[in-house]
Write a structure and sequence with these properties.
Blueprint: E1 3-12, E2 25-33, E3 39-43, H1 47-55, H2 66-70, H3 78-87, H4 97-117, H5 121-124, E4 132-140, H6 145-157, E5 162-166, H7 174-188, E6 193-197, H8 204-217, E7 222-223, H9 231-239, E8 245-247, H10 253-262, E9 268-269, H11 278-291, E10 295-296, H12 304-314, E11 323-326, H13 331-335, E12 347-349, H14 362-368
Parallel strand pairs: 4-5, 4-11, 5-6, 6-7, 7-8, 8-9, 9-10
Antiparallel strand pairs: 1-2, 2-3, 4-12
Helix pairs in contact: 1-4, 3-4, 4-11, 6-7, 10-11
């Protein structure tokens, strides 16, 4: 089998707002082969920039578009192709947007392998025997106390045993956010884990104050209270607390996560399969977390393509205990899959169909593609 083309499809809703919601647009990939098996993938980044990374023509030995690199290759050779893409983009890659784009290609290659063999990806990764995953509802923090209380209570009634509030109305002035988080904790009750995602990079003293307050309140973990590059700050913060600190959604490759562990002392690592290097690299990051006795809870705030990929990885890694389940009310989040993935009583079933286990809603894609 040989790769014949990479088709890039930019999806974008009509009105995109400057808020912390990455489900307003996306780049999906279709990797075509000469045996009429097509793999699908997603790139969770700026869609048009990643599209250019894939479609760029050859410049020289270490600067080439990803399509140029993989067309004509055997899609089963995922390790070889990962290294080839990484090495032949090193002048303008190694981290950031190139690895994001590579992630979508790698995801699609695994989808091809699963489809060709008639197996879901988790079985190709080793499997684990469980058929569903506990999910936490991930939402933007509402604007007022009444809205927070109603939303959290509704999620608890839906069966979620864990809820994360982030971005939304959070500001650098943590005192403005405290009443909302207190209301959320009261509405969640003692049996439901509550997490808080700062996501904006506070200064260390403010992060220390916020983390100490969250720990006293009983927050399960605090996410991204510092800049993702402030490794010394993270080390100081993590070493001073019993409450876990999480980060990693903006990080790429096993080397980046090695630094978060070794130099940042992070307790919970959050690789995003559509950013960190795809399924191939995410599996290595999961293993790295295991070696260093760190918890891995992948970041998963995008379409059902990413949800399916995260479920496949999770079902192959017993150490991953939670699935982030994005509750954004956007067309891409709701309609991209032919059969949308849903949480029922706080759990999500692992797709059992070959590959990623999902098919795309082509009519919806036609209506929203750019």
């Amino acid at each position: 089998m040989k790769i014949t083309d990479i088709e890039t499809i930019v999806l974008r809703q009509k009105d995109v707002l400057p808020i912390g919601d990455g489900t307003q647009d996306c780049l999906i990939l279709k990797v075509h082969t000469d045996e009429n098996i097509t793999g699908i993938g997603e790139v969770h980044t700026c869609p048009t920039v990643a599209q250019a990374v894939i479609n760029a023509p050859l410049s020289h030995a270490a600067v080439a578009g990803l399509k140029e690199i993989v067309v004509g290759e055997d899609p089963f050779e995922t390790e070889h192709l990962w290294e080839k893409m990484y090495r032949q983009t090193q002048t303008f890659g190694r981290r950031g947007i190139v690895i994001h784009a590579l992630s979508g290609v790698d995801m699609a290659l695994w989808d091809i392998k699963g489809k060709a063999l008639g197996l879901p990806i988790y079985k190709l990764l080793g499997g684990s025997g469980f058929k569903e995953v506990a999910a936490y509802a991930s939402i933007l923090l509402p604007d007022d106390s009444a809205e927070v209380e109603n939303y959290v209570k509704a999620l608890v009634e839906q069966g979620f045993k864990a809820i994360k509030l982030g971005w939304g109305s959070l500001t650098d002035n943590i005192h403005d956010s405290k009443p909302l988080i207190e209301k959320a904790k009261a509405a969640a009750g003692e049996e439901v884990k509550l997490m808080v995602d700062i996501g904006m990079g506070l200064d260390l003293s403010t992060a220390m104050e916020m983390a100490g307050w969250c720990q006293a309140l009983g927050v399960y973990f605090l996410e991204e209270p510092l800049s993702c590059d402030d490794l010394s700050g993270y080390a100081a913060l993590c070493d001073s607390l019993e409450m876990p600190i999480a980060s990693g959604e903006k990080e790429t490759t096993r080397w980046g996560f090695r630094d978060l562990i070794i130099h940042g002392h992070l307790d919970i690592l959050q690789p995003d399969i559509a950013r960190c290097g795809g399924i191939s690299e995410a599996k290595k990051i999961v293993d790295l977390c295991s070696v260093h006795h760190r918890q891995c809870i992948p970041h998963c705030w995008s379409s059902d393509i990413l949800v399916a990929a995260t479920l496949q990885l999770t079902a192959s890694a017993p150490g991953i205990e939670l699935l982030e389940f994005c509750m954004a009310d956007t067309p891409i989040r709701k309609y991209l899959a032919g059969q949308p993935i849903r949480a029922v009583n706080g759990t999500v079933k692992v797709p059992e169909a070959p590959g990623l286990g999902i098919e795309l809603n082509e009519d919806f894609i036609k209506s929203i593609r750019q």
